[in-house]
Amino acid sequence: MSTLPGPNAALLVVDVQTGVVAEAWERDRVVANVALAVDRARAAGLAVIWVQHEDDELQPGTAAWQWVPELQPLPSEACVAKQFNSAFEGTPLLPLLDQAGVSRLYLAGAASNWCIRATAYGALERGFDLTLISDAHTTEDMTLDAGRVVTAASMVDDLNTAMQWLSYPGRKNAVATAAEVDFGAAHCDAAQAPLMAFDPSRHYVHLAASGQGRQVPGGDAFWSLPEAELARFDEHWLVTEFECASDWPNWERHPAGDEFVYLLSGAATLLLELPTGVQRVPLQGRAAVLVPQGLWHTAEVAAPSRMLFITRGQGTEHRPVTNGT
Question: The whole model's pTM is what?
Answer without folding.
Answer: 0.61
